[in-house]
Amino acid sequence: MPQGKGCVIYMFKIAVVGDKDSILAFKALGVDVYTVYGSEEARKTVDTIARNNYGIIFITEQTASLIPDTIERYDNEIIPAVILIPSNQGTLDIGMKRINENVEKAVGSNIL
Amino acid sequence: MKVGKIIKVSGPLVVAEGMDEANVYDVVQVSENKLIGEIIEMRGDKASIQVYEETTGIGPGDPVYTTGEPLSVELGPGLIEAMFDGIQRPLEPLRALAGDFLSKGVEIHSLDREKKWYFTPTVKVGDKVEEGDVIGTVQETPIVLHKIMVPFGVSGEVTDIKEGEYTVVDEVCTLDGNKKLQMMQKWPVRKGRGYKRKLNPTVPLLTGQRVVDTFFPVSKGGTAAIPGPFGSGKTVIQHQLAKWADSEIVVYVGCGERGNEMTDVLMEFPEIIDPITGESLMKRTVLIANTSNMPVAAREASIYTGITLAEYYRDMGYSVAIMADSTSRWAEALREMSGRLEEMPGDEGYPAYLASRAADFYERAGKVVCYGGDDREGAITVIGAVSPPGGDISEPVSQATLRIVKVFWGLDYALSYRRHFPAINWLNSYSLYQPSIDKWMDENVDPEFASNRAKAMNLLQDESELQEIVRLVGRDSLSEEDQLKLEATKSIREDYLQQNAFHEVDTFCSFAKQNLMLKLVLEFYDQGIKALKKGVYIKEIEKLAVRDKIARAKYIPEDNIEEIEKITEELIANIDNLISKGGILDA
Asked: For residue B161, what are the β-bridge partners?
């Protein structure tokens, strides 16, 4: 663990979860890529990496729609942040909806 | 003996003059009706007498006859299955004699003088016997072998002993040629019967009630109090204990409570079969009834009558349980008499000697080595209900009781309102016998019993803290471990502690079954934690179908308890299945 001046810096990793075609390109950015097929594998993968020092988990909306319980589980956790992204087949709009909901909860009205 | 003259009547209290030959605590006969009374105060030649019967129609000038004897009970065969009033008059023959309600001045012997019992000697001519030695036996009921003992203060060499059918007053044995012994003996109720020495009570009384046996056990020879507000189930718990406690004799004192509660006992007990002896429960029960409409002075005596009978059976080497329902009514009787005597009142009008009287009563409990050559061990367990007004136990009777008793079963109205029976609050009840009983449990039931019990209690205590958080911010804000804890404690509360007194199977639960059930509900928590660590979601654990079976484990009959172990296996299999389906990857 690298030490900064007078403070400890925790290094978190970033992961992307989804189908292979949508997420393979993230590898170029140095992000860990986890390709999954089916809900069971998706769930196990997300739960496993959530416990393994990942700070942000990007997950494609298609995959996320298979495992709503799992996504909900991390809603109240600070780490990891589970962020939904569109896949190569376009958006399902659930990622944006979640953000709108959260904004509404936080400030009282939808300002976006 | 000199005849006194009444100068004042105040309810059950009569003051008579010209009583200089009498002594305090002598029994007297008041008026021509010969009402039974007891002198409770002497000033010069004036005696204050508490009358154990209705005093209507008595006035100044009426005579008072002294008997010169203290208030005594008759001890001998014929006590079991009988029902007596507070001064040991048998109610059934009284009814035959005088009708449904008590009438004045009816004289009747406590024990049937006509009935013949088969006396079997256990000593022979030439044997030397001392006080407390068993000279013979009478099969009083199919399960109670009544031992006829040499009365205290008598000893000698047996010169004659007869076998055969005799009444309680026939002479069956002669000592030293001149001391005639009969089967019946008398004993003053206010004096504890002696014993050789007291022992430390370490064996638990099996009551078949899970919350009592597991969390707040009382030992054979211990004392317990059940305080609780109206309608919280004191009487039902007393009845349950009287039914299922594994003591050999039960003395049930209905003291100042409703008459139909005694009726319940009379109706139910003969039909219930004791799981230990296989005979009707009535065959080991003595009832003493002084219901709320019976004379108040006799209420004061009923407690002592009950414990004296209990001591008599203890002296035979039996383990006796005495239930007193309720000692608050008894204290109120003391208060009433004290008020009429114009004594200086203490807290809430109770007499200043309330605490010492209560202590006198509870201290007659205990496990002892009885008199007699064979060093028999007998025990008296006293379980007293207390009815604090408004359920507030900071009142004098509860406080005086709690100072003496070692087990406190605090009943909670909120629990009984939720239909949680027995409504014993697990957070504020306690048992000071726990350490010694833990040891007994570990040796006789399961080496892990005490640690399991402690674990379950810790969970229940954690639950009450978590409930506060849940009330403030809601259940979803808890971590999954804490949510599981809530589920597990719910299971302990509803599947383990809660017990149905009216269900054939669930009304009684043996130690072995309690042990397995406790293990099962705790296993659910352990397995749940294991599953959570492996990434299983709390919702999936909550939805497990096997949880229904855990909830129904209490209805598994005693002769089938290995079923409970099967449920445990099924639970583990189910959890393993969840882990393999939804668990995290072993990376």
From this structure: B173
Residues of B in contact with A43 (CB under 8 A): 582
Selected for mutation to probe chain B from A35, A40, A44 (highest B CB count within 10 Å) is A44
CA distance B575 to chain A (A): 16
Give the span between the Cα atoms of B70 and B68, in whole angstroms. Answer: 7
Using a CB–CB cutoff of 8 Å, tell me whether A76 touches chain B: yes
CA B73 from centre of chain:
20
In contact, B467 and B435? CB cutoff 8 Å: no
Distance set, CA B12 to CA B37, B299, B334, B338, B478 (Å): 9, 11, 12, 11, 63
Per-residue confidence (pLDDT) for residue A2, from 0 to 100: 55
3-state per-residue secondary structure call for B409-444: CCECHHHHHCCCCCCECCCCCEECCHHHHHHHHHHH
Whether residue A45 lies within 8 A of chain B, CB to CB, comes out as: yes
Question: Which of B539, B581, B587 is facing A40, going by the closest CB pair?
Answer: B581
Contacts of A44 in chain B (CB under 8 A): 535, 582-585
* Alpha-carbon gap: B275 to the closest alpha carbon of chain A (Å): 50
Residues 6+ apart with CB under 8 A from B251: B285, B286, B288, B306, B307, B309, B310, B313, B320, B321, B322, B323
Q: What's the CA gap between B122 and B563, in Å, rounded?
A: 47
In this structure, are residues B541 and B484 in contact, taking their beta carbons and an 8 Å threshold? yes
**Is the Cβ–Cβ distance between B255 and B326 less than 8 Å?**
yes
The chain B residue lying nearest A71, using CA atoms, is: B537
Cα–Cα distance, B378 to B319 (Å, whole number):
5
CA distance B50 to B581: 78
Question: CB distance A44–B582 less than 8 Å?
Answer: yes
How far apart (Å, rounded) are the C-alpha atoms in residues A59 and A16?
6
Whether A32 contacts chain B with CB within 8 A:
no
- For residue A15, the one-letter residue type is A
Helix pair B480-491, B511-533: axis angle to 10 deg: 160
Q: What is the pLDDT of residue B391?
A: 86
- Minimal CA separation from A44 to chain B, in Å: 5
Name every chain B residue with its beta carbon within 8 A of the beta carbon of A74.
none
β partners of residue B14: B9, B49
Which of A40, A43, A66 to probe the B interface (max B CBs under 10 A)? A43
What CA dihedral angle connects B146, B149, B151 and B156, to 10 degrees?
Answer: 160
Q: Mean pLDDT in each 10-residue stretch from start to end of chain B (587 residues)?
A: 90 93 92 92 93 92 93 94 93 88 84 93 92 93 93 92 93 91 94 94 94 95 94 91 92 91 87 84 93 90 95 96 93 94 93 94 95 92 94 93 95 92 94 94 94 96 94 88 95 94 92 95 95 88 92 93 94 92 66
ipTM confidence score? 0.76
pLDDT digits (tens, 9 = 90+) for B535-548: 888 888 999 999 99
Nearest-CA distance A82 → chain B (Å):
17
Give the chain B residue whose CA is nearest to the CA of A39.
Answer: B582
Tokens representing B356?
């010492």
Which of A44, A70, A76 comes nearest B585 by C-beta?
A44
CA dist list (Å): A98 to A80, A93, B287: 16, 9, 71
Distance of CA A30 to the CA centre of its chain: 16
The rounded Cα B501 to chain-centroid distance in angstroms is 17
Q: Which of B66, B60, B75 is nearest to B20 (CA)?
A: B66
Is the Cβ pair B584, A48 closer than 8 Å?
yes
